[in-house]
Amino acid sequence: MSLARNIFRNRLNARKLRPGDFIKLEVDVILSNDITTPLAIDAYNSSGIGVMKGRSKAVIVADHFTPNKDIASARQVKKVRDFAREKSIRFYEAGCGIEHALLPEEGLVLPQDIIIGADSHTVTYGALGAFAAGVGSTDVAAAWASGEAWFKVPESVKVVLKGSLRPFVSGKDIILYLISRIGTDGALYKGLEFCGESMEELSMDSRFTMANMVIECGAKYGIMDADRKVIDYVEERATRPYSPHPEGYSIESDTEFEEVMEIDSSSIEPQVAFPSSPANCRGVSSIEEVRVDQVVLGSCTNGRWEDYEKAARLLEGRKAAKGVRFIVIPSTARLYREMIDGGLMKVFAGAGAIISPPTCGPCLGGHMGILAEGEKALATTNRNFVGRMGDKESQVYLANPEVAAATAVKGYIASPEEL
Amino acid sequence: MSAEELKIKGKVFRFGDNVDTDQIIPARYLDTSDPAELARHCMQGVDGEFASNVRPGDIIIAGRNFGCGSSREHAPLSIKGAGVGAVVAESFARIFFRNAINIGLPIIEVSGFDSKTGQEVLIEPSKGKITNITTGGTGSFTQFPAFLSEMINAGGLMESVKRDLSERRDL
Description:
The complex is a heterodimer.
Chain A: H1 3-12, E1 22-26, E2 29-33, H2 37-47, E3 58-61, H3 71-87, E4 90-92, H4 99-105, E5 114-117, E6 131-134, H5 137-146, E7 148-152, E8 155-162, H6 171-182, E9 190-195, H7 204-212, E10 221-224, H8 228-235, E11 259-264, E12 271-273, E13 281-283, E14 294-297, H9 305-315, E15 325-328, H10 333-341, H11 344-350, E16 354-355, E17 376-379, E18 395-398, H12 401-410
Parallel strand pairs in A: 2-3, 2-5, 3-4, 5-6, 8-9, 8-11, 9-10, 14-15, 14-17, 15-16, 17-18
Antiparallel strand pairs in A: 1-7, 12-13
Chain B: E1 8-14, H1 21-24, H2 35-39, H3 50-53, E2 59-62, H4 74-81, E3 86-89, H5 94-103, E4 107-109, E5 120-124, E6 129-132, E7 138-140, H6 146-153, H7 157-167
Parallel strand pairs in B: 1-2, 2-3, 3-4
Antiparallel strand pairs in B: 1-5, 5-6, 6-7
């Protein structure tokens, strides 16, 4: 009956749930950031509700327009910081990290959790076997008050990944391929549950990338079994007790899905999403020369150790092409230190990279790498909508970190095999 | 006003499929929570003239997957702030959908309804009927499930939570 419905059922002590049922669930984490929290504060304050039953579940991260990009965002972050302090809510200051890289690292999100976040990429935590869904600011305010959120039980799609991955293929390529196959509304109002033999080969970092981008095909959530890899990941970080799975359950053996989709992972080469849709993908080998002005490595999508490590391996002893602004964004303060200790920063600096503090920055066209009219960027981020990284007439291409490294070196969109 | 009496009538602004929240309100304007300020930039990423042309009660009609992308509640808030009477689409992205319900922006899912920018449309929620006054064409839609109607009738999510908490004597 799907992993998500199992999690709901355990939480509600209900016997059976059907798609379309409306339910209220107690949540484990209520996330918001410097952009979405101000609206939640307004909704909470103007409601006249005094209680805050969800206080201990609340987490606020200042990561979008931070370090403060101008006076208006400084005011906004200050409003959020002051509120967090007044209400004793867990608050991560500018520079701590990008929310969806930070929360798993901090051990705040765990298997079987029910997580809401006023940020569409909250779905990332599905990689840990949690039900995690993006919501709005008023949902966050309501959950602060009641400790609960409302949901419509979605239909679930079992996504079976078969076969071995090709060289230079990672989670980014699998999820881009899936999005291009079903379209940007292909999983609208539905949940995606991943299983199959390719999961063995997909690292935690790759799985976070896949779960992160399920929103780009409209999905409510994307979840994976909390297998050995997940347990190893959370074991050393968990801040609360947790249990990996409903007893005896696996997505693979579950036969009660509304839909089943099979993907042959071995047929997928590194993907590049062309402007202006994440569903507009082509295999990297079929791309004619597309020159770029900027390459961005980082974000909540591809901002984990393996992402930087793979890119650095290709960049060692090489330089970014003339005329390319190569921006590397370590996604958390801890990763920043690890990248120094592990020698990665030396490689990036040697390649002529601009190394940014942790921030969402250019991904959403905030700051730290905005594009002018007519400029093109290749980014390891999640969206290439019209005007996403700057001017309406600028363009964004999405790809994995190794394609980004090759593109930075060549100055045009390139396969890692060309290096 | 009860649901029975509510009618929405206005001029159409027509948009296509996959209008994302970056087009509805580009991220550079997310440094404010003021609906009036957000309204000044409403739909700027897809139609730079919208904010100056829209009049209270006007109706946005779009294709599939309206409001996809970011969770920013600023998107429905900017539309509401601009005085838009309702958003009609073939389908809505789910976070936009719940945000609209939560803040009380009327939204309606209708397939195959023919309309063009500038035409006049009447929506009668209690009848589940939408009429293109200019052409005479009509469309129909189903009522929201009881759970959502109750939330809308309570005045949005915060009011409904407030009522629940006070019924449980948590307030």
